Amino acid sequence: MNRRLLQAAVALALAAPGAALAQFLPIERIPWPSEGNFPAYPVTDADRPTEIWVQGGFAYDSNIFRLSKDVDPEDVIDRKERSDWYERLGVGIRHESRIVGRQSVRLQARGDQYKYARSDNLDHFAYALRGEWLWEFTNDFSGSIGYERERRLVDLAQRTGNEEVTENHAFVNGAFRLGPNTRIRAGYDWVRSDREDDAFEDAELRSNSVFGGVDYVTPLGNAIGIEYRRTDGNAPFAQVVGGVAVDNEFDEREVAAVLTWTASPQIRATARLGRTKREHDEFPGRDFKGTTGRATIDWQPLNKTAFTFSAYREPRSIIDIGAAFVDVRGFSIGPRWAPREKLVFSAAYVRERLKFSGDPATEVLGTEERKDKVQAIRIGAGWEPKRLTQVGLAYERGKRDSNLDIDYIYNTVMVNLRLIF
Fold this sequence. Notes:
Elements: H1 3-14, H2 25-28, E1 50-61, H3 73-77, E2 84-100, E3 103-116, E4 124-137, E5 141-153, E6 164-177, E7 182-196, E8 203-217, E9 223-234, E10 239-241, E11 244-246, E12 250-264, E13 267-280, E14 288-302, E15 305-317, E16 325-340, E17 343-355, H4 360-364, E18 371-383, E19 389-402, E20 408-420
Antiparallel strand pairs: 1-2, 1-20, 2-3, 3-4, 4-5, 5-6, 6-7, 7-8, 8-9, 9-12, 10-11, 12-13, 13-14, 14-15, 15-16, 16-17, 17-18, 18-19, 19-20
């Protein structure tokens, strides 16, 4: 099965309802036929080493700040209207080429200017950069080393001001084939996330992860193995809760079984199932210990139709709400259909349960542990009237139910035009 097909399908199905970059998320996840997402249609311009694109779009959101129906908007945002219109203008570039021998480089960059009709305090410039060197020595030793940086608006379900998050990620990894069926893997990840906040205290989260694994690989590319990962995390700025400075430093260890399986040209599955333990230096009541994992199945019964199913549980650090973590359990399903080479439809349903087990306020202040249930339905349609021109239309409906009476419902409609050169 085409690797790009699986990547696009998984990204479509797994995007979380509360993602901070969700302004045009259903548009971004449209699986365009020209990009090789359906066997019925050939990939166009597959050998182009460089692509430059420009885009423009606008959207309407019925509840831009995700306010509860019982909240008076004037008490929070000083106006009666919960809704807002916003637009974006963006540009991007992608380049991938071989530089010498078996060595390749992959570069990506994009920038988007967002402007809001009523909530001009949310106007911002978001960008993402990524550089990656794909290295290979002999037929048995390969990997990558790279760096990426992203700046975005904080999740508005958590805040109401123009607060931005900057995330940096550096990584290096490699795999060595030891004989015809054994593969040894290892790598290192460094992450730094910063949240700039005028109304609340700033937050910063750093983590260092090392991992290693061994896999049994079949001649068909199927693999089963075991992996060990250790992560050390810290937040240089102590979080102040009820006048108490809380150290959010933690140590996390995970042992997991991993699987990549292609049952047929129509069915491909990936799975990870393990045991994760996260311990904090302060307030052990915030610690996490349990079974974690993620399983995804991509099923393509017809050349123009496919489905992706996924289920997962993980302790997820979310800088949008501070330096703590959230215990997330969820599942998703995402069908896609391209009746014509120039026309495609996609959808996704995502449902998650979030326990804010890592919130220090529960331990320090004795407050009730927050528990949310969030879900979203996304529908997208894409039209390519001519080569390298993409018109996207999408709708999203999201809902949150919480034990802390911070429920919300929102509806978003968006349209976007992208020109590729």
